[in-house]
Amino acid sequence: MEKEIKTFLIPNDLCKRAGIAGTWLALDQISVFAYEKRNIRQKDQPSHFASTTQSSVFHLRQDVVLFHPILRKLVNESNGVFLAIQSLISSKNADLRLELFKISRQYRSIIRACLENLQDEHTKSEKSDEKLELQNYITVFYSIECIWHLCEILFIDTMPGNLVLSQLLEWVSFHFPEYERNAASMLAENVVGLETRSEYWDTVLGALLQGRIKLVRALLKQHSSSDNSTYRLAEQILKAMPTFNGPGGSSLNELNMQWRHWTMDVQSKIDSKLFSTEKNLDLMMRLIVGEEKAWIEIQDKCEVWYAYLAGWLFFTEPTVKSFELGQFAKRAITKLRMNNQMKQLDKVLLAAMEFDIFQVIKEIQHMYDNGWFVSHLTDLLYHCDRLCDLEKEVPDFSAEKLRESFILDYGTTLMGHKSLWQVGLTYLDHCPNDGLQVIELLLPRIHMDTEAKAQKVVREAKNRELNNVVQSVCKVQGMLSMRRGRLGNALSWALKSQDGPFTSFLADEFLQNYIKSGRLSSTDLLDNLGSGMLVSDRLIFLGKYYEFHKLYQSGDYREAAALLISLLASKIIPKYFWYILLIESIPLLESGDLLFSSNDTFTIMHCMEEKKDVPELKDKLDILRLAATRNLSRALTFEAQIIE
Amino acid sequence: MSHSLHGTFVSEKINKIRWRPDSYNSHFFVTGSIDNVENNIKLWDFCENVEEDDIYPFLVYNLPYCGDITEIKFINSDFFASSSSSGSAYLTRVIPSYSESTSLKNEIEWKNIHQFKNGDASPCTSVTVYDNDIVTVGEDGSINLLNGKSSKILRKIDDADSCSIQCVIFLKHNEILTSNLRGQMKIWDLRVQDSNRPTSTFMISGEQVTPTCLTYHPTQRHLVITGDDLGALTTWDLRQNTYPINVLNGHEGAISEVQFNPEYPDQLFSCSSAGEIWHWTTKGEAVPSLLTPNVETNVWLAPDNVKNKLDVFTLMPTLGKPINSLDLNRNRVICGCDNEAIYLINGVNL
């Protein structure tokens, strides 16, 4: 596959002189800046391009047409259909073929709706560049519709016996509806003498090439000389045309025979110059019998080769099989001398008629629609089992991997959008090999400017059991809250993800703040920690310490003292906090009521002696010792009395 | 079910959707977008095409908006208050016009009334109204009391909560209920000046549950229902608020909004982030018993087996994306979703 490399110039002098470097900014943006490349041998010093003057940083983003408001409807609506297929497949529906055909029709009706919206907007629009842009989208989606329809006929809604002509004609008249439209408006007037209209004969011939014989006859009836013998003869011939009523009707051989008789009859009438007076009727009859010269005469009237092809097949190969289409298509293209003017659409259609699905996919992936078409069509063909044959033909080809790679790309593109990221997720969900890993990488990178959005992201991560994503999002939110001076909120986020180390870190912040300010913050939160505090020892300590504080402040000294002792005896006191606890024990030791037993006092003294080298404790040590000894003497005396 | 469903793709995710309340049963409603490069509040009209038996929303007016719309509450048929993730709140007027189409205009803009201490803008997460009184809450944990007739902040409770406040409703003219990220619910008396302490605090449940929406019963305002991020509905009788009366585990995802039917107060509507929209009704015809006249007739206040007394109908096949908001007007329900579509459910069996 040829690689197309696009070059973008960064319009900046500094960048030009120094060189550039780039880094990913968000999912869909690259930040580009001036940067001088260094290698390890060079000295580590400021680049001589460095200066204090302002320099520019450039943000580059891929232009995604699907993010246009009208196309966003298509993206969202088709996402619903895509998800319907996936659940259809997993539900093992009995009539899968029919359901998949319905799905294909749904996709097409979505494209149709989108085209109509685009056309409306195009008519309304007054700015020329906007008009041009919309016209481009219309061209792209028109091609998509046309290709999809043909693929549906050839690969999804296949007729028994591979008879393809009636659908092919339908396809042509669907995409070139002007003959039918003109005819309808002419017939609606119900006047004789329609031939005075400039478009009359073009319409008749056009309808004939699309196989709309009834329409042709109706038009001829409105000709002012329709009563004349030549016209009556033409009417007879057209009326007698053998029709093929699907596989249930007459057998193919029978039809072929009837057809041969009929054309021989027409030929003999042409030969006896029965139509020579009416040039147009003569041409029609010669077309019907497949006269080369006649077909050359009208080939300029055909807008596209496939309209020519369908008409030609209708009269010369009415029982053409779908697998024969390719060779006839090539012949038609050669006849029209189109070989060197094949546009992309023509190439794709030809490839489809040649049943070269691989080539079809190869061509449509370069369409200007950011992969919408190729991923949805490939997915559908994959589920119709149309890709498995390719595995035999093309070496190293895996249908599953091909499908996944398109869907993965498409999903990733959508993940870069502020609003469509959830749609992108559902595509990645259906990539069995790498989807989850990609989600794991992309989800935490979604721009979260509110907690509501962060919660949505967390929910999506939880649904997919991506616990490390949950943790990382919660941690980012927590750090953000901390920077904003909302320590309590930060703790809530840490608890949400049950993140032990982060919780401890925040509990330390609380305690350090207390040391600095003498006040505990976020008490409304600390009041209701519940079992949440079990996440980290540090948080348990914070919770218990806050409890101690509350008891102390409300005057419940006895309980406060008991809690203090149990804290000292536990092993969860942070090093930096020891001296606070010891100092705060002084007033309790000196309290009028005896609060500590001798054992309690020993605990305090033990801790005190153990921590006597803590610098913050130095000038308080004497007081502490004194208070402890005094309390000990009181306690011993008291306990002695009780024993007696 | 005999209701009909009409969906329309609108090219933006809808975070809030509200019928315009009015006595003559019009079809106007407003939507507020989210996650858009440029958000907006739109006024729509549901046009009924009798011939084609189709109903589709027709865009009447588009008002650009700064930030995600986090809440919209109508004060009366002409005014609504809204809150923005940019930290501002707005009072917007619906201006009818005989010559041109109806339009929207911001009457009062309370800019940046929620802010963090480091100067970052704080999203204003919700707004609630009572007559002309408006209360906003935000991620900065503060509460603002505003009035629809003044552009000043009447009262601000700074650091009302150490966590971000996510929901707020008026309980009485002087009392509001807030809920925070941590699952704490607090009742505030707005008359008490110079205090940033709530009159009472209680927890939604033990662990890591965040209430995502609050509503009160239409006739018994002390009965409050909270929806949470685990999909459960919890009923509270605020006369005895410490413990919930009952907890209904229902939705798969977080509950985005709950709303009682004002005409049939036993009925409730709820929608969730898993794309469900449900209609809760009481089972069968509750025969009033003559023998036990003192039994509480409100089914939501029944302490146990409440699930057996309720029927749940799904109003719409489950969407793959969150349904963010719903609103009810008689038998018509509208909802706004993350698949960038709005849906009208017409003729709900009440």
TrEMBL record, chain A:
It is found in: Nucleus, Nuclear pore complex. The keyword Protein transport applies. This is Nuclear pore complex protein Nup85. The lineage of its organism: Eukaryota, Metazoa, Ecdysozoa, Arthropoda, Hexapoda. Pfam families: Nucleopor_Nup85. GO terms for molecular function: structural constituent of nuclear pore. Its main location: nucleus. GO terms for biological process: mRNA export from nucleus; positive regulation of DNA-templated transcription; protein import into nucleus. PANTHER family: FROUNT PROTEIN-RELATED (PTHR13373), NUCLEAR PORE COMPLEX PROTEIN NUP85 (PTHR13373:SF21). The keyword Nucleotide-binding does not apply. GO terms for cellular component: nuclear membrane; nuclear pore outer ring. Keywords: Membrane, mRNA transport, Nuclear pore complex, Nucleus, Protein transport, Translocation, Transport. Component of the nuclear pore complex (NPC). Functions as a component of the nuclear pore complex (NPC). Belongs to the nucleoporin Nup85 family.
Automatic annotation (TrEMBL), chain B:
One of its GO terms (cellular component) is nuclear pore outer ring. Signal peptide: none annotated. Keywords: Nucleus, Repeat, WD repeat. It is found in: Nucleus. InterPro entries: WD40/YVTN_repeat-like_dom_sf, WD40_repeat_dom_sf, WD40_rpt. Its main location: nucleus. PANTHER family: NUCLEOPORIN NUP43. This is Nucleoporin Nup43. It comes from Psylliodes chrysocephalus.
